[in-house]
Amino acid sequence: xxxxxxxxxxxxxxxxxxxxxxxxxxxxxxxSAFSLIAASLYYMNKSPDVALAEAAIGxxxxxxxxIIAIEKQKQFIVVNHLNDEFxxxxxxxxxxxxxxxxxHYGLKLSVYKNDDGQxxxxxxxxxxxxxxxKSPQDNRKYLFIGKKASILMNKLEQMTKDIEDIKIxxxxxxxxxx
Amino acid sequence: xxxxxxxIIILVVIMFAFWLAYLEIGELKNEYAKNYxxxxxxxxxxxxxxxxxxxxxxxxxxxxxxxxxxxxxVTGIMFMSKNDERR
Amino acid sequence: xxxxxxxxxxxxxxxxxxxLFGFYIILNGDKSPGGGFQGGVILATAFFITYFxxxxxxxxxxxxxxxxxxxxxxxxxxxxISYFTNGEFFTNFIPVDSPIENKRIFLILLNxxxxxxxxxxxxAVFSAFIEEGR
Lengths: 178, 87, 134
What we know:
CATH class of the largest domain in chain A: Alpha Beta
Number of strands of chain C: 0
Largest interface: B-C, 28 and 38 residues
Strand content of chain C: under 5%
CATH architecture of the largest domain in chain A: 3-Layer(aba) Sandwich
Order of helices and strands of chain C: HHHHH
Number of helices of chain C: 5
Shape of chain A: elongated
Helix content of chain C: over 70%
Helix content of chain A: 40-55%
Order of helices and strands of chain A: HHHEHEHEEHE
Oligomer: heterotrimer
Structural class of chain A: alpha/beta
Distance between the termini of chain A: 69 Å
Number of domains of chain C: 1
Number of strands of chain A: 5
């Protein structure tokens, strides 16, 4: 068997693994290996120019950019506007829900206490994912306010569907929630 | 179920089209440009690497606007990231 | 972000060699495989390594984009000189009947400018990604 055939078979297996795998970080490493094999195949087919570009771009720059993007998505920032113990660590009911949610998607949960100076335009200024408040009409319900464009909000809505005193509100990116 | 069947039918059609194209590769062979570059490329441009001879001399017009596309992409990314009113 | 000491040491060791390799590929683009784009990408990779050495580094993005614009204008000017010497746009500015060795000047010049332009562009994109939300 020629070595090119072997490399092509390995390439197909790696491509299938990339499609079927769920872990983001491992997937980036696999795509880097895919580019490296593609570069060696280009070299064997007598086009070293393309092999140089493929090796530099496909296995160095694109994985770096992907890894940075994944690293920036790993935090889930919540701002707490409540006065009772709904979001207290270890005892609150809402904290348990959010912790379960964050654990399920591999995120790092961080809850900040409110301070009124920073509420204005909070979504744009500090990259906040979720704001928790008490509903003004119904005193027993809690409002979870988040961005409309985020996919995580849809998943959070599905997860808290059967909990009664939580209501989810999605806001547009540009409009401000006061 | 109907969606999946539809996808499979589309895949089969695309594979058939590729197979037809593969059968016709031998008939479409045209070696005029290749022979011209191999014969006169070194004398006309002074480059031993024929790829460089093509993209820096025969097709310089295309290369310049390829560089322009990179400039456009960079300025677009700068605009997107600075438009955030962070400071 | 914590970075391992071994990674920092190896990065410091590799940095000058990758720079050298990038410039070699750019300047020999007319007689060996490679050229402006490939060498520029390798130079940009060499620059990314410095982020492992000093993660808190801040880069002046506006200056980089300005440099890239001027390099693009320079490439256009170099490509258009041939109108005054050969009477034709976008080709070699050295006359056709001059010796072959002289024609390489044009190729090396244009390869060098394209390489620098690709380097600055990729560094700007990557730094914008890193500094977003920091």
